[in-house]
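Late entry, evening session. Most of the bench is empty. Finally got around to the prediction I had been postponing all week. Sequence below, unchanged from the version circulated by S.P.
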Amino acid sequence: MNKANIISSGLLELYALGLASPEEAVEVEQALSLYPEVKQELNSIELSLESYASAHAIEPSSSVKDNIFAQLSTGDDKVVAFSSNRNFTPEQSTTDQKIYRIPSFFKLAAAAMLILLIGSIILNYSYYNKYKNANGDLLVAQEQIRQNQDANLTMKNELNVVSDKNARPVVLNGTPHAPDALAKIYWMKNTGEVYVDATNLPGVPEGKQYQLWAIVDGKPVDAGMITTEKGIYHIQKMKAFGNAQAFAITLEKAGGSPAPTIDQMFVIAKI
């Protein structure tokens, strides 16, 4: 078990209270010798237990303290006999010395306080662990909600592009190099904006990326790099052109190329 698990498991609390099994005690002692953080945590737990005991200590009544100081002031060397028969019971020994026994009530009370203390510690750590688990589940749920919201926003934007009355769809068919490849351009007639849907393009090898080209006045012009999200293509906005005669997509090195690699042209379409 690593130091994080030792600290969070509750073994240190059981060890400090003397309730750890022999195997658990060995495990804790090994961790103490290996990890200063574990030793520091144990010291902190022991200080907390001492503070708890001090905070819940029961102060004796003033009459008991007065009786003690009165006996001390007389210089009497005998064992102090308390006046309250409820608290202490004298017994006569064979040497005529008085022996005072602590009633079982106080022993039971002390044991009950210790049990309550241990129970409180265990309960607090149980709730703490449940809180950590619940908090972790909440973070996972929040992340899932965020991802769903992002996915819904992406779908909404794609739908807006496809359904726009000014969108002119252009299908880019595969070349002899990739006959099964297919892509689609949405060219906005009113603004000249260009959107590309590369969903049906083949996957790219590592270090490669698709690049869109517009043929303007007979020359290829860079229209931007096509990006993916974990290997998934979405409709994305590219560079705008007021006039273009054709569009093509080539496979280039990641980041793009200043000129298209002709033998790596996957799809093309004339307008």
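Two things to note before I forget:
The chain has a mean pLDDT of 76.
The first strand starts at residue 89 and ends at 92.
Will write this up properly tomorrow.
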